[in-house]
Amino acid sequence: MENIALVVGATGITGSNLAQELISNGWTTYGLARNPNTNISGLISVKADLLDVENLEAALEQISPTHIFFTTWMRNDTEEENIKVNSALVRNLLNVLSPKKSIQHVALVTGLKHYLGPFEAYAKSGALPETPLREEQPRLEYPNFYYAQEDAVYEAAERDGFSWSIHRPHTVIGYAVGNLMNMGTTLAIYASICKETGRKFIFPGSFAQWNGLSDVTDARILAKQLLWASTTEAAKDQAFNITNGDVFRWKWLWEKIANHFQIDFEGFENEMRPLEKELQNDEELWKNIAEKYNLKENKLSRIASAWHTDLDLGRPIEVMTDMAKSRKLGFTNFQSTLDSFTDLFEKLKEEKIIP
């Protein structure tokens, strides 16, 4: 039977890498987004608004997917709004497709906020989670839109009889055409600014992150796990952590990144020095850099997400995940984290995003 994938959020870093993985494995792949990506060869674009049921029904009228991959979310001002909006994204789509009876598997990508709490709740409870983070750790008492999204999947699975998988990456690193808002790109932009101006490449985060063990998730290895879980019987109806498979300390990786760009760096010194503050006056500077090197994007706010990088690197504990669960079930892919970053930097250079 033909595998027909619907990738929800196909313009994002996770969705676009997944779409390429599915297409290369012979899947018929539809990419749903409000502003579809037409840059991926073989991807069939679907323009739809997940919050508009009538629009969604019309857009999906001729499409009967066997596999759904949710790789997107919408950022709102409060976690209560996040819960309302992001659970609706999932529920609306599964409700619209329910009458077709075509769905075999639904995969949902969430993240480590499942264990750490929502952005505004990091480290405020006084009871920090035990690391390495493991899938069996219970939900927190905090409101969390990931839980609401999971529950929407569970409800629909019970109603319609499909299997599911939940995927919890750490920070996702990789390249996405037209969507550059991630830590890897943000650090590349910052390093490029430092190189151009002679400024030092200053670590913005906490002592715990600088000195503690950490891991990240390459978008390419996340795509491989999503494909594996959706086609492996033993992986069905399970939640999985997904990281590259190695661990590092930022004090090691920060120097490696600085060396790649041939710039001077500073590590953690007494206090956090947020990147958002460091870049706050650099819009005009980036415009000039973009003009000088003929870069594709001259608006800094469209390619650097300093606030998100600050949240990741500002955590007061070391954060790493346990990968034993999927390893035991047969998922053995591995990715070097240093290669994740350097591959991305070279791609950004090649695509004229950085000098």
Automatic annotation (TrEMBL):
It comes from the Bacteria. InterPro entries: NAD(P)-bd_dom_sf, PRISE-like_Rossmann-fold. Transmembrane segments: none annotated. Residues 66-355 form the PRISE-like Rossmann-fold domain. It holds the Pfam family PRISE. This is NAD-dependent dehydratase. It comes from Epilithonimonas lactis.
